[in-house]
Amino acid sequence: MTFTGGQVYAQTLLDNGVKDIFLIPGVQLDWAVEALREHGTAFNLFVPRHEQSTTYMADGYYRVSGRPGIAMVVPGPGLLNATAGLATAYSCHSKVLLLTAKIHSQGAGKSYGLLHELPDQTAVLRSLCTHDFQITAPSAINATLNAAFNTLEQSWGGPIGVEIPHDYLESTAGVQDKHAPAPESEIPELDSQALQEAARLLNEATLPVIYAGGGTLSGKAHQQLLQVAEKLNTAVVISDNARGVIDDRHPLAMTTLSGRAIFAKADVALVVGSRFVDNVIPKPVWPQDKTKFIYLNIDTQDFGAPRKPTVALHTDAATGLAALNEYLKPRTVLSTEQTQAAKDWAQEQIRATSPLGDYLHALRQGLPEDGIFVNELTQVGYMARYAFPVYQPGSYIGPGYQGTLGYGFPTALGAAVAGGGRRVLSITGDGGFGWNLQELATAARYQLPVTLVVFNDGYYGNVRAIQKRVFGHEVAVALRNPDFQLLAQSFGVASTQVDNPNALKGAIQSANSHAGPVLIEVKVGEMPSPWPLMGLKPMPGVDIGHPPANLI
Ligand SMILES: Cc1ncc(C[n+]2csc(CCOP(=O)(O)OP(=O)(O)O)c2C)c(N)n1
What we know:
Elements (H helix, E strand, L loop, with lengths): L4 H11 L4 E4 L6 H9 L5 E3 L4 H15 L3 E5 L3 H15 L4 E7 L18 H8 L2 E4 L6 H14 L5 E6 H5 L21 H13 L3 E5 L1 H5 L3 H11 L3 E3 L14 E2 L4 H5 L4 E5 L19 E6 L13 E4 L2 H11 L8 H17 L3 H11 L5 E3 L4 H9 L8 E2 L10 H11 L5 E6 H4 L6 H6 L4 E7 L4 H11 L12 H7 L3 E5 L2 H12 L5 E6 L29
Parallel strand pairs: 1-2, 1-3, 3-4, 4-6, 5-6, 7-8, 7-10, 8-9, 10-11, 11-12, 13-14, 13-15, 15-16, 16-18, 17-18
Helix pairs in contact: 1-2, 1-6, 3-4, 3-16, 4-5, 8-12, 10-12, 14-15, 14-21
């Protein structure tokens, strides 16, 4: 029996456990898509309205399920459209597999100007993926795809790309079944001297503190992190990328805001799975000289300047924390009163930044315990980074260091596919919604349980606020919006409009009992700035957000 390359391709995806695929078809994918169809209900094909959503949906899917998110696009502009999602997946270590077609194998490098040809497509893909695979012959489809899946499995995260010239999908010549050798594990062995030195520093410190970055979440180190925190009874300051790694209601769980009070007194900090560099200026998020730093990271790049590690532990978060735990002496670094004082102080700061804090309260109260929150680059969203309480891993999604405006809604759709009926709450500003408002069609078509809250202030409000504060003027920030109620209606999406936090809470609660998507528009005016409270260090020159010296 002979098979087309497309059939081998589809069968290999199935053999690697793939069920859900986020794709936009096109002529270069035809033989693969036809083969997917032949498998009937074995595959669920989700077809959004723009290629950027394929990778965003795949990312949201991975972050909720822990299973690789699979995106499929045509070459050239198809791939280029998908790159913002790849960049976000890269910054969040999300296991996204991007399957892209390529121009005809005999046109490669010849500049014939074939449909969707790029001068160097592989270079584009390679620059945004941790690994990339080229299918170099029809007979190599099975082996190369298996190698990509094995690598994805062994890797510590980040997107992987696979390219296939479209003629190989149509070809029946020489298609063979081959098995790829399993790649080596990417987890290095821990240096035992460094481990003991780290344990000594933590055991002898007066106030050791733990800082958890996204690597604790992607490295599934929840239990190990909690064990170390509870052994020392000290605070874990959870970065935006790690939200959910420990339930925020745990007495030792701190956000970057409540963590300010702890870091101010800490003499040793254990930084786990974090780049620990400010998002805008290449400086560490906390000064390196007054505190001794132990950095635990799988990526040796994250040990270098401007960080100054006293000890560097090179392994993944779960392995490193479990090993450290063996050497730590049980003690009570912080009392319940001290951790509560830090949390109470943070709450007061949030409450005082009204109405942002009230809106966040409404969002949390409206969302069920197991609901999934997808944050965005909107003013309420900046505050959510440190003020939206998160209860479990995989229930909070942020954009990582990319800070990609507009990523949230399509990411929420992928999260909903993975969520098995859990309600997804996606927030956006009216500006960011413009990046992907066509995906209301996708939400409606697949009846995804997403509540989309659009904060409508008529501006790129965050940029406007910064312009006004810094320059005293505003420019290029006013928006002319559609009627969001009519827009939702035209896509067949239920919608409502509110103008205060209490009404927002009620609208979210009613949306929870809806099976499909609901759009809630919130009419807002100018908001107070969420920036002075963001980040571990108080903002220089701003007089709010400084914890009193005697707080803990
Ligand atoms: C891809 C991308 N483009 C531009 C920006 C810069 N940016 C950050 S916030 C923002 C304005 C957001 O406006 P809106 O979505 O209306 O939310 P608001 O600030 O009004 O709450 C812009 C343009 C970005 N972060 N990402």
